[in-house]
Specification:
Elements (H helix, E strand, L loop, with lengths): L5 E10 L6 E5 L12 E6 L2 E13 L3 E6 L5 H7 L3 E5 L20 E4 L3 E10 L6 E6 L2 E6 L5 E5 L4 E4 L5 H6 L1
Parallel strand pairs: 7-12
Antiparallel strand pairs: 1-2, 1-6, 2-5, 3-4, 3-6, 4-5, 7-8, 8-9, 9-10, 11-12
């Protein structure tokens, strides 16, 4: 399995017991949907290695307590500490309406209510306080905030995202 075919689920952040159980900080708004997993891919070196799960359950709000088949001691747990967990993209719940995964909208055209076609989404920058569409129009890059207030429609069939950008934003880049 290649990382490109997977989505990031979370990171092993600490040991839970002397029997090798670990706590995973999940990167999701719906942690409860991952309570019944049977396996995950653990990133070790440059490889994704399948790990089978004996038991997993929510621990507090966004932590998942996992008992892996292959990890039964503290030293086993130490070897995977800090590792990132992945699942195949096919296991992502389908989103509808104006909700979307960042990876699925790459290549979508941004249609502004005032300016029309303002470019194509080449990536999403989610390292800032506000996630941003990185949009390319000719040779110019536009940064448009990803915000429920400005997104009016996600048209998956036509690969378009309709927005109402803040006054002056598009002119700042293309004017």
């Amino acid at each position: 399995m290649r990382k490109e075919d997977c989505f990031y689920l979370g990171k092993i952040v600490s040991k839970y017991s002397f029997k090798g159980e670990v706590l995973v900080k999940l990167d999701t708004d719906d942690p409860e949907i991952y309570e019944k997993m049977e396996s995950v891919f653990v990133s070790l070196g440059n490889n994704l290695v399948p790990f089978f799960i004996d038991r997993c359950r929510l621990h507090k709000s966004n932590l998942l307590r996992i008992d892996f088949e292959e990890v039964k001691t503290e030293s086993d747990a130490d070897r995977i500490m800090g590792s990132l967990l992945y699942l195949p993209l096919t296991l992502l719940p389908k989103l509808t309406g104006n909700k979307f995964y960042f990876h699925e909208i790459i290549g979508f055209t941004i249609i502004d209510s005032e300016h029309g076609n303002v470019g194509v989404v080449k990536s999403v920058n989610d390292t800032t306080a506000q996630a941003l569409f990185e949009v390319l129009k000719n040779d110019k890059e536009l940064l448009i905030p990803i915000n429920d207030d400005i997104i009016t429609k996600v048209d998956r069939e036509n690969k378009e995202i309709h927005v109402i950008t803040p006054d002056g934003l598009v002119d700042l880049y293309l004017g």
